[in-house]
Amino acid sequence: MTYINFEEENSTGADEYFMREAIKEALKARELDEVPIGAVIVFKNKVIARGHNLSEKLNDVTAHAEMQAFTSASNYIGGKYLQQCTLYVTLEPCVMCAGASFWTQVGRIVYGAKDDKRGYSAYNSSIIHPRTEITSGVLEKDCSALIKDFFQQKRR
Amino acid sequence: MTYINFEEENSTGADEYFMREAIKEALKARELDEVPIGAVIVFKNKVIARGHNLSEKLNDVTAHAEMQAFTSASNYIGGKYLQQCTLYVTLEPCVMCAGASFWTQVGRIVYGAKDDKRGYSAYNSSIIHPRTEITSGVLEKDCSALIKDFFQQKRR
C-alpha cells in the first residue's frame, strides 16, 4: 500500500492519486460512448469538482470534462478564480479548455497524456496563464491507453 | 430606411442588422454591470440563439456570450455542428471561445471590435476551424465604444 502524504500536494504520490480520480471520470464518459476524458479539481487536498466529457450526450462541444469541472469548482468556491486549485485531467487540454483555464487563473494543471494534434501547446503555450504551473505525463500510459483503445474499438 | 436583402446573408446590410442584435445582447450585459459583450447565432437568416456575458453574475468564466450562444444554438439545431450558422459577436472571440468555435465548425464568424490583448488572433489564427470564414470590423466603432465606455466608467 502506498502512503499518500497529503501535506505534499505536489508529490508524485498525490498527483497519481488525484489522476486516478480523473481516470474514474474518464471511465464514466467511456460507459456513455463518449471520448473517455475525465477531470477533477482539487482544493486543499480535496476533490471539489468532477467532470467527464459529455459532448455527444449533450450535443454540446462546450461540455468537455474540464469546462464542467471549472464551472462546478467556481460554484463550490463561490468565485470565478481558482488560483488555489489544481486541475487534474487525463488528456492535455484543448485550446478551448486551456483558454478557460486562463480566465480561472487556476494554480496548477496536471495532465496525463499529451494531445499532439489538438492540445493547446501545439498552438501557443502562452494560452495558459503565466501563474499556472503545468505538470504533464502523470499516469501517461493509462491515460493514453484509454483514448487509443476507444478509437481502436470505434474503427473495428 | 435601409432595405435588408435577407437572400444575401453575407451582405453588409444583413451583417449590420445581425450585429445590432448582438449589440442588444451586449447592452443586457451592461445593465448587469458585466463587461458588455453580446452574441447571436444566425441560421437561414434567423436568429436561433442569443447570449451575453454573465461571467460575474454566474461566477463562471465559461459564461462568455459566445459559449452560451453555441450551447443554445446546438440545442436548437439538435446537433453539435454549426457549419450552416453564422456567429455575430461584438468583440473578437477570446482563445476559449475561438477554441469552442473550432469544435462547432461554425460556418462564419462576424465580429465587431478587435481585442488586441485577448483576441484569439493574438495567439494563433489557426485556432479557428479552416472552414470558418471570418469577417471583422462590422459596426466596429459602436462595439468598441461599448467596451471603452464601460471601463472608463469603472475607472472613475
From TrEMBL, chains A, B:
UniProt binding sites for Zn(2+): H64, C94, C97
Example GO BP: tRNA wobble adenosine to inosine editing
Cofactor: Zn(2+)
InterPro entries: CMP_dCMP_dom (IPR002125), Cytidine_deaminase-like (IPR016193), tRNA_aden_deaminase (IPR028883)
Domain CMP/dCMP-type deaminase: 13-123
Pfam families: dCMP_cyt_deam_1
Documented EC number(s): 3.5.4.33
Entry's cofactor comment: Binds 1 zinc ion per subunit.
GO molecular function terms noted in the UniProt entry: tRNA-specific adenosine-34 deaminase activity; zinc ion binding
Annotated keywords: Hydrolase, Metal-binding, tRNA processing, Zinc
Catalytic reaction equation(s): adenosine(34) in tRNA + H2O + H(+) = inosine(34) in tRNA + NH4(+)
Active site residues according to the UniProt entry: E66 (proton donor)
Family to which this protein belongs: Belongs to the cytidine and deoxycytidylate deaminase family.
Subunit architecture: Homodimer.
HAMAP family in UniProt: tRNA_aden_deaminase
Function description: Catalyzes the deamination of adenosine to inosine at the wobble position 34 of tRNA(Arg2).
Protein name as catalogued: tRNA-specific adenosine deaminase
